[in-house]
Amino acid sequence: MEKQQQERRSGGEKDGGRSSRNGGGTGPKPEEHRIDIPEVSCRVKNWIESVKIAKDYQTDTRSQTEWPSMPKVPDMKMKMKKTQDSEKFYEPKVISFGPYHHDKPHLLAGERIKPLCAQKFVADSNQDIEDLYKKIKSNIEAVRRCYDSSATNKYDDEKLAWMMLLDGCFILQFICSCTDDMSNINLKDHQISFVELDLFLLENQLPFGVLRLIFEGSSKFKHGSTMKDMINRFVIGRNGIQLPPADDRRPPQLPDKPYHLLQLMRCALLGGKDKIPTKIKNPNRRRNRQSFLRIMELKDKGIYLKPSGTNSLTDISLEFHFFRGCLKLLPITIDDSTQTRWLNILAYEMCSEDPDDYAVASYIRFLDNLIGHPDDVKELRSNRILCNRLGSDEEVAQTFKQISHGMLVDPESYEGVRISIQKHYEKLVNAWLGECTQWYHNLFRTPGSVMAPAVTLIMLYLALIQTYYTTYSRK
């Protein structure tokens, strides 16, 4: 192993040569001195020069939380999602970040725009690209430990450090452009949408420590925003949570040192929390209860829907007012990106080194239990809990089934809500009111049946008049 690392470190020397800064004098050992202040080989100087002259194409000690393990999609997850096109949800479509999908043929076009983005970001942040490279090179062993060795062994230290630098600069420049002016990145609208998807794929992540090395030396950008503020706004704006334009709720406070962008997205969905506190399990909890009711069944039993006033998926509550119940859910948007984004978050939750509370997976299963028919989706839309930008209500219902199939969840999640619904269902008076509600809905389900109550009242009125006049005429 040590021999392989030594060969990687000497990769640049074989290509361009490296002069010793210590000559024949005394002092620290050359190896120790080279680690503290990495030297730049001719190969790296050529790379740096390529960034400085890039043209537009038309087609120290760090926190351990910023250098996490960068897992791949678990095999178990892929087996449970065994379909012909399941891999399309986990592979980048336009651009790769990190070593897992680097140099794949269909992503080579994206590689050509990275030097230009690096050039623009370095210029806007008033930094020197050679200094940035040295910072990343000095942390290259920490970078290697983040990834599976099978993906990084084929790159020497110089190549891996340069990959991290270009990828990191592109990500930061893309985020800056999304919050300011997209003309700074020469991409078409559909390519921009794909890049936004690629940024949140589990196997397409950079350690946040790399991004911090690149942006920590920059001053505030346009409008006085820091890079970290722009990253948070970018992630929150794409988490699928729908808030009214004039909503006064404060955005979630995201962690200052996340693992990577996908974990930051998960935190944004959970109201800024990385891990949901584990609830104390009740050994006397009821078992073998009836199957969970659908949205329309809940409505028939006197339970209605209302948007919650929070910013976390997990804030699901059930309140009762006399015989009526109110189930509060966070408003969300379902569009073409939802399935890809959620599947990668679910894969992240299944990784052994990462959160084991299955918070997002449990929420999706809860919502899937509520949706059994397109009418349930329609009811969610009618109550402003779900914004359908995907297509038909049938497509939304099918999407939830595909996402939740075979995933791991916390069996204790939302136990209080489930028990409250079941108790409400079992009460005799609520069952009676539910039957009345069901009769009412059935009565007005078709246009012809709408006239039935009116005809009945008219006939009753005529019968009363006839009875009156018959009695009066006899007198």
Q: Secondary-structure map with pairings?
A:
Blueprint: H1 2-9, H2 11-16, H3 30-36, H4 42-52, H5 75-80, H6 108-111, H7 114-124, H8 129-138, H9 140-146, H10 149-152, H11 157-178, H12 189-198, H13 208-215, H14 227-236, H15 261-269, H16 295-300, E1 303-307, E2 317-321, E3 324-329, E4 332-334, H17 338-349, H18 359-370, H19 374-382, E5 386-388, H20 393-404, H21 415-426, H22 428-443, H23 451-474
Parallel strand pairs: 1-3, 4-5
Antiparallel strand pairs: 2-3
Helix pairs in contact: 7-11, 8-11, 11-13, 11-14, 18-20, 19-20
Main pleated-sheet profile:
3 strands, mixed
Decide which structural class fits the backbone: mainly alpha
Strand order of the largest sheet: 1-3-2
Please, how many helices? Answer: 23
- What's the β-strand tally? 5
Overall shape: it is elongated
Beta-strand fraction estimate: under 5%
Q: Strand-and-helix sequence, N→C?
A: HHHHHHHHHHHHHHHHEEEEHHHEHHHH
* pLDDT averaged residue by residue: 78
Oligomer: single chain
Tell me the Rg in angstroms: 30 Å
Helix content: 40-55%
Q: Regions with pLDDT < 50 over 5+ consecutive residues? A: 9-25, 30-35, 58-63, 76-84
Euclidean distance between termini CA atoms: 117 Å
